[in-house]
Amino acid sequence: MDPIAKYISQKISKTRWRPISPALLQRPEVFATGSWDNESNRVSIWSVGDHGVSNTDSEFDEEPQLLCDSQHDGDVMDLQFLDQDRLVSASSSGAVTIFKLQPDCQSLSLAHVWERAHWYSCDNAPCTAVVCRSPEVVSVGEDGRVILYKADQTEVVRVIENADSSTIHAVTFLRTTEVLTVNSIGQLKMWDFRQQSDSPAQILSLTGGRVPLHCVDKHPNQQHIVATGGQDGMLYIWDVRQGNTPFSLIEAHSAEMWEVHFHPSNPNHLFTCSEDGSLLHWETTSGSDMSTLLQRGWNSRVVSHSAVPLAGEDDSVVSAWLAGDSSKNRLEATHMLPNQTLSVNSLDVLEQCLVCGTDGEAVYVHRQVPV
Amino acid sequence: MEEVDVEPSTTLIPGAGFHQKHLGFEWGPGDLLVYETNYKLQGPRSASSPSVHVVRRDEDICSPILRKLFNESHLIFVGLQKIKEDVPSKNKKSQFVSISKNYRSVIRACMEELQQNAVSTQEGSLASQYGDQVSILLAIELIWNLCEVLFIDAAPAGSLLLHLLDWVRLHKSDVDTRAREVLQSDSPAQHQSYWDVVISLVLQGRTDEARQVLSKQASLRAESSSVFKRMDVLLQNMPIFNPAGTQTLTEFDVKWRHWHEECDRCLQDNTFASNRHLETICKILVGDEDTLLEQRELLSTWYHFLVTRLLFTHPTIKPPDLHYYAQSSMNMFLGPRASPEPLDIILLSAFEFDLHQVIKDCSIALNNWWFVAHLTDLLDHCKLLQSHNLHFGSNLREFLVLEYASGLFTHHSLWQLAVDYFDHCPEFGRVYLELQIERVPLDTERKAIKVLRICEDRQMSEQVRSICKIMAKRALRNNRLGSALSWSIRAKDAAFATLISERFLQDYSNKGFFTDLDLLDNLGPAMLLSDRLTFLGKYREFHRLYGEKRFSEAARLLLSLMTAKIAPRSLWMTLLTDALPLLEQKEVIFSVDQTYELMSCLEELNLGTKDSNQTDQDEDIESTKTELLRLALARNLAMAIVKEGTIET
After folding, report:
1. Alpha-carbon B287 to chain mean position
2. What is the Cα–Cα distance from A70 to B58, expressed in whole angstroms?
3. What are phi and psi for residue A349, nearest 5 degrees?
4. What is the DSSP string of A20-89?
5. Using the beta-carbon criterion (under 8 Å), do B524 and A255 form an inter-chain contact?
6. What is residue B393's predicted lDDT score, i.e. its pLDDT?
7. Which secondary-structure segment (H or E) carries B451?
8. Nearest chain B Cα to A189, which residue?
9. Distance to chain B for A124, nearest Cα, Å
10. What is the torsional sign of CA A41, A47, A48, A54?
11. Which residue in B has a C-alpha nearest to residue A313's C-alpha?
């Protein structure tokens, strides 16, 4: 089934599903988007539910409808849902903002702003990423600071100054008090907030390479497995307990990889999106799960395999597998978007629904992802 | 100089030009800057207003709904460029027609959304603006559709008229609404628009539907039912050419003439004299021009009149004969006094198969290049444009696409689309892109990374260097030495790397310790970019070795830094001072040869001319340092000689 596209007249930097309450077994219906590079940027809330009349054959063929939106000062650099009603955004002006969403989704209002949380003395320092684990929020920015906030407190809880001499691009929680950051010289740094010192607990990096890393995500069940992606479009899988080198290197994209996500409930599936305009869905076949696959230190390079022929290519699908049919562990990648678009900046996946946003000002929603 | 085609329109700039002040102006990529000068033709001088006015030519680019048009058409454009050359031409024609239909559906979608907004908005000015945009899009779609029928689809005689009929039907949709209204009313035959609907349907050649509506009338009047039956038969028998069928054009023509004669006979026999409406219909079927002209209100446009006239007088019209009928239809319909609108002239040029005139007139009439650029590109792919070179720039298609893309580049957000358009302009696209891409404002690193990706993919190394330099300078200003170094390494800019290393070393001598250790410890192969950077990396390594108490390795490294001339002269004193603790150790670290080398370095340093600006204090410090070093070196030399001379027993 092809994803539904909707053009929304603004370049989309981030898309996120609103979390669904675990009690009600609903399908994800509401998602948020943030725009960038506009004279006035906006954070918008959309709904992809059943709006009454549905088509005869395909049940959920509805375009996303705008529910409400709010002005945002500066580009939306990152967006995360703190809980069902609150949304945190990172801005290119250095501010971190909490938005409040009304329960009926009819309006979005500003709850709290930490202005210039990230700053330079004579310039604005963009805040590049935020991550939430309610009630705590951690943000990182181009000024190399790591800042910890509590959602209900107006003052910042802790600032780690000079955490990094280069730009920190992404951050994720490993444990309740530990975060992992990636920076533009290809290092992963682990920070423990229980420690008083301002130096990282651990530093991991690629030997011999300085590839800037742009995104990071942790395996939902096994906290030592982390996936990162960077400027060269390669997917790196690390085991943070051991070693200074990544476990696997997989050739995924031909340009910067912007986001990588493990599927939250089915971690055998991984999604990546990139500047080259493609969104790949990675899954392991033949029954073994991702963690055992990684533990066996599978280091071969995979050429991505397209199940859907891209428009404009030959109809004979190129399918290159790992060399050696005896290998029982295979990683299969499929393109999720029908044709090559401008850069896919962001993706989010929840249950069977996938949403992504592109620089072509289009949002794609896929509601029957095979996971 | 060339003659001006149309009179230039004047734009009023509020707030400028008061008191007969002269205005100055400057061209920009998409806008015009206007300012008041101090010059005045007569009268006393007075202060001019300090503001600069930005006059924007194309306001469409700012409309959020039209942005969807730009984005979706970009996708279609890129897809069109990828169509392979070796596909046989018949398949290609259907591909081009479907692409043309795609473009048109995008226009229609925009139009519908604008229409909805125009209806729902409450601001009067906004509603009228939307209304204007809707009418422009309507005109654009009309022209595009006609071009698709005449040029891209290029239907031969027979099917040509059918396509033209479709074209007219698509752009005159009120007939359907009125017909539905009449049919759904209680007594359709008594409805005031009843006969209008029937005649409109006949004028559009929709004989089956006309018969259906007529049948409502027939059931009422029993006595005149024979007349209605006669009309019904006439309408039923009207031949319609079937391009997919086995009938040839000549056979169809013969059949049609028979039918035409029959209609004429009915008229001569006064069959329909009892009912003037039916008489009118019969006259229409015969193709009587005066009757057709009487239906001016129902036809509403001269091109509808043209198509109807052709339907009932010359259904086997051939494309080259079209223009004669078009010209005469327009003259007849508009009358002697009315002057044709720009839209009419464009359509007439299309009927005359004069593509260049169509494109030229559209360029003048519309305020942005979207329509002409995309249409010309599509026609060029169909090989319909002769590649006649303009006396400036390259061929017509490239010129228009470049103009459109340049306009896009001035937009704060849509510049990314323009990149693909430049890529597909073989002659000047690259140059344009090189000039424009450097001027994109870079607020965040993420945007800079995207711009760099565009440049690196196209091997624009000059632009890569300049963008990286901008980012590095900005990082340096904000004291982000690590970022600055990363950017200079990406640009392979040795000079800047040297500059940054100097900053690091300066920081070190000021503070006494290194900052940004995580960066310096992980330079990797990038260290080789510049000598100063290599020195910095190695110097840091020396400190690390010293910290790990690996003294002999540290000593060797320190010496190599000086003897291999990697270290700059200005830092030799610092290095030698660093050597002091190593010399003072109980254990002998420097060997005899190494000590001799250190001594020669020290003497070399002292031989250099003294800086005359040094104060007495500085000179004292310098000489004290030198003395201490000489002493330490001498002592070390002594111990080393003894150690090396001793034989271990």
Report:
1. 48
2. 28
3. -135, 135
4. PPSSS-PPP-EEEEEE-SSSSEEEEEEE-S--S---SSSS--PPPEEEEEEEESS-EEEEEESSSSEEEE
5. no
6. 59
7. helix B445-457
8. B518
9. 9
10. negative
11. B82
Please tell me the predicted confidence (pLDDT) of residue A226: 92
What's at B33, amino acid-wise? Answer: L
Instruction: Please tell me if residue B37 touches chain A, with a CB cutoff of 8 Å.
Output: no
Q: Which of residues 392-421 of B touch A (CB under 8 A)?
A: 412-413, 416-417
β-sheet with A86-91: strand ranges across: A76-81, A86-91, A96-101, A108-114
Residues with Cβ within 8 Å of B70's Cβ and at least 6 positions away in sequence, in order, are B61, B370, B408, B414, B417
Q: How many angstroms away from the CA of A192 is the closest CA of chain B?
A: 17
Q: What is the ipTM of this complex?
A: 0.88
Residue B238 DSSP code? -
Task: Give the closest residue to A178 by CA, choosing from A160, A190, A162.
Answer: A190
User: Mean pLDDT throughout B287-306?
Assistant: 89
- pLDDT in 10s for each residue of chain A, 371 residues: 688 899 999 999 999 999 988 777 778 889 999 999 998 999 999 999 764 444 444 444 578 999 999 999 999 999 999 998 999 999 999 999 999 999 888 899 999 999 999 999 888 899 999 999 989 999 999 999 999 999 888 899 999 998 988 899 999 999 889 999 999 888 899 999 999 888 899 888 876 667 899 999 999 988 888 999 999 999 998 888 876 778 888 889 999 999 999 999 888 899 999 999 999 999 876 544 555 555 544 444 443 333 333 333 332 222 222 222 224 456 788 888 887 789 999 999 998 899 999 999 999 999 888 88
Tokens representing residue B18 in the block? 């008061």
Amino acid at A137: V
B289 φ, ψ (degrees, to nearest 5): -65, -40
The alpha carbon dihedral of A258, A262, A265, A269 has a sign of positive
Inter-chain CB proximity A209 and B443 less than 8 Å: no
pLDDT exceeds cutoff 90 at B452: yes
